Structure formats: structure tokens, C-alpha cells
User: Fold this.
Amino acid sequence: MCGIIAYTGNQNAAPILVAGLHRLEYRGYDSAGIALHSRGKLHVHRAAGKIAQLENKLPAKLSGKSGMGHTRWATHGEATDANAHPHTSQDGSIAIIHNGIIENAGMLRTRLEAEGTIFNSDTDSEVLAHLISKQSADTLIQSVQHVLTLIQGTYGLVVMDANRPGEIIAARNGSPVIIGLGNKEMFVTSDANAILNHTREVVHLDDGELAEINPKGFSIRTLDATEMVRSPITISSEFESQDKGKFPHFMLKEIHEQPEAVERTIKGRLDHRFDTAHLGGLNLSARELLDIRRVKILGCGSAYYAGISGANMIEQLARLPSSAEPAAEFRYRNPLIESDTLYIVVSQSGETFDTLAALREITRKGGRVLGINNVVGSTIAREVDGGIYMHAGAEISVASTKAFSCMLACFMLLALQLGRVRDLSPQQGKELMQAIEQLPSLIEEALTQENDIRSLAAEYCTAKSAFFIGRTNAYPVALEGAQKLKEVSYIHAEAYPASELKHGPLALIDPDTPTVVVLPDDNLLDKSLSSLQEIRARKGPVISITNANDPEIKRLSNAVIKTPRCHPLLFPLVMGVSLQLFAYYCAIAMGRDVDQPRNLAKSVTVE
Ligand code: F6R
Assistant:
């Protein structure tokens, strides 16, 4: 959500910044801009729209060996040229790019305007540029430091001063800032993906820290001027690929990457000697695992839906009361934190603000928190007591696909390990391990339905509204199916537990409103078939996603997507894939911008 890139070194900064912005575009794509330091001045270029629009506006010749770039997801003020970052002070000497929200911007702006400052944008961020330019400290970092004590809110911030060539100040509070270390050149970014083609050596700033950066090095200090020493870490090569390969969109590529992504999640984590999973990063002994009395899972959006499924898996296999809750709501209800509850925060990016806030609330109250994360070294991954990395690889499409599946695979491994320290027998452990090992090939098999799903999508994509239903563990799959459809195709979609349909939503069933039914072959199949009857009796079209062979399904459905048979706890991973393809092809049929849907952005780092 908004992307930051900055460079200082000996190369021409403009192409580095523009290429970085392209790699950050999935983080926000309503406007973009760059500022370059050249001949004692900061030269700013901005444009509403995608990076390509900015590129069209850039002069053919751009010079400058340091600069900053930003891609925006609007919070305050529409997506216009004027609201795009960088923002500058009135005399043009200070330029800033900012991710986050300045909560007291209104008050600060009124004060600055009363002093005669003229604002050029509707953004909250612009106050930062004006305030910094009004400081009279000896160094830029001192000026920024002072201004940060005046503001309330969150920031990932980069500042440059026309009078200090090659110098960049970065600061962080609640929005990621990463320094990349090159050879006599330095980078700053909000997302390591943007600089991985230049360097893998990075340093993460923590909240409340600022950094002074020049081509030769960097220093870090806290807001109260305490010097900090931080060693760089090396980012693994997993996060490298950022091209679509043979696929037209990242979403389709990432759907197809799922067999190998899930394979990576599982790899090395099944212990055949003891018929259990072994998750080294949990930092919990078998005794501590045994002492757990309850499990609470927190996440946002698709991560929350994966959490619902994870809670089902853990409750079934470890017989521990388990539940999932949207992370954003959690901290506002003054939750009870118990020492024998295992809290799990799930987040692909590891930067989602609401999930991070829930983690901090639990930690403050003394709870133990595990993370299920994809991005190594992300804020959540660094702040949890232990965790499981998904190893899904970079997910660039805004709509999550492979990360969702890898989250489910992590939960399955955790459920197995928790189960085996309780009353799950070695034989049951062995059977589950065999089922888990089959997952990559089952997902592969589910993907072979692609052509049928494409035709089905072409038939149903004109629907104004759709329902998704499922029982127990099929319900989170329905939630995720509806989420995918609305995100990328903009078709209104609602998910319900199948049993809830008759308690209200049935009123909306009509011949123009299809219902997608997630129908695993389990002991609830007959009950689910009753829901199909109820829909058909109201002339509602039914699309069944199923791995059951009951002839009634065909009789009661307008269309059937078959998925391979699998362990009853693992069907969400397999059936989820068919629903992702359905959403993708509906969006394609409607001509949507699949990888960058309207109003959205990857990694929601604001509240
Ligand atoms: C849906 C989607 C979002 C994210 C949510 C949490 O396709 O991508 O709902 O799942 O914003 O993001 P992470 O997992 O990064 O915390």
C-alpha cells in the first residue's frame, strides 16, 4: 500500500527509481512521482495514474545521482497529479515521500496556513515537507527528528534536501522502511522486492527510528537520538522473480505456481520417524505445546479466511478449542489474553497494519504469539515469538492466491504437530502425512479443469450478484471464493454457511443470481444437497464444486466442476484453486485489470 524507493550513489538515479516503481506498482497504483537531485535543486515529476503515465511525462534527459520515487494508494485526497508524491516545501528545498497517515495533519496545516504557508495538495503528507523546511537545526536528520515529535500517526518517510547532495533521511513508524546496501551506493525502499535486482543485503528500520544515508553508508538513531547498531541481513533468492513468464497476468501465474509453492511449504517439515510435522521456528517445546488449552487465530481478508480453516483443522486434529477472528476488530474489544492460549497471526506480507496491531496488543498483555508469514524479515515475522514461514515466493497479484493455499498448508502442518503431542496416534499421523504429501499433485490435477472453468466463467460473468455457500470447513472456502470474485471481477458476491441461506438470503435467489456450492464428499453431503434443492426450487442457478460422485449433484446443478478426492481436512486447498480460476476467468471475460483491481493495493499498511 504505497511504495517507496530512493537511491544515492554514482549511477543515474532516474532509471533505477522508475524500475523500482514498476516493481512496487502492486503496492499502489493511482499516481506516482519521482524527485531527482541535480545541480543543487530537487526536480519533481508527478502524474496521476499508473507508472506508465509518469514515464510518458518524464523529460527524455534526466540527470541526478540521488533521488526518490513513490507510488500512491490514496488515503487523503483524490488521485491527481498534485496529490501524487513527492511533496516539496514552498521554496522547493525539501522533498518528501510518505507512506502512512498523519492524524494531526489538519491541525498542523491550519497552523502552517495561518503563518502564510501555501499548500499545493490535499494530502496529509505535505505538512511534513513544510515543517521540515522551517527547522533551523544543523543537520537534516535533526530537523526531521524534531518534526516527527510534532506529528501523530504512522509513517515510512524519505526526505531529501536540495542543499545536501547525496544525503537521504529515512524514518519509520508503523510503515516499513528497508535500507539496501550496495557497492558505494545505497537504496531505501518500503518493500525489498523493489531493490532485489541491485542488492540482497538489507537493514530494516524499527518503529521510532531514523536513518541518515549517503553512498558510503548509513547510521541509525532513535527519535530520542540514541545511536543504534544494526547488522545487515541477506534476503534469500525465493523472492526474486517478478515477471509473468508465459502467463498474461501475475494472478494466473501465481495460481499455477501453487503445486510448487505448497511443496516448498511442506518440504523438510514432515518427520517420518515420528509420524508428525516438525516446525522448527515455533520455538516451543513439546511440553509447551502440550500446555496449550486454546488457539486463537487473527488475520485480515483472505488471511482471516485461511485462519477459519486453520482453526477447524487444529480443533479436529488437536482437539483444542480454536477460533479465528478479523484482526482489525480484535484490539478494540479489550480482549482477554490468556497465558495458555496460543495466538497465531497470519499475514502474507507480514506488514498488514491491523494484524500487526493485534499482535502488539497481545504481546503487551503478555500473550504468546506465533506468526504465519510469507515475507522473511517482515515486521510481523520479526515481532512474533515464533513462527512458520510459508515459502510461497513473491506474490505480486493484488488478489492473494498461492499465499492463501500456503497458509492452509502451514495450518495443516501445525495441526498435525499439535495433534501428535496429544491423542493423534502414529497411524493417524502417518495417514495425514501421506495426504499432505499428495497435495502438490492434487492441486496440479485441480488445475487441469482450467478450460472448463473458463467456459463456465464466460457463461456466468454477466451476473450482477452471486452467492457462495459451504458447510463447516467448506464455509471458509466459500468466503475466499466470493472474495476472489468480487475483488477481480467486481461482481457482487456473498458467502454464507449453507445452513444460513434459509434464514434470510434465500429471499435474493432468482434465475439471475447463481450460487456456487462448495460440496466436499463428507458426512454433510446429504444436508448440503438439501440446500441445492432449496435454491433450485427458487429457480436459482447452481454451480457445484465437488469431489463427490453422488448423481444427485449433477441433477441439481446447472454446472459441476469436479476436483480430485482428498483427505476431508485438505479439500479447501484443492477446491480453492477452482474458485480462484473461476474468479480469474470471470474478470478476464469482463475485461478487468486483474492484477491491479480498482481501489485496492497489496499489503494494507494503514488502519
Ligand atoms: C485478498 C487479499 C487481502 C489480503 C489481506 C491481508 O485477495 O489479498 O484480503 O489477504 O489484505 O493481507 P496479508 O496476508 O498480507 O496480511
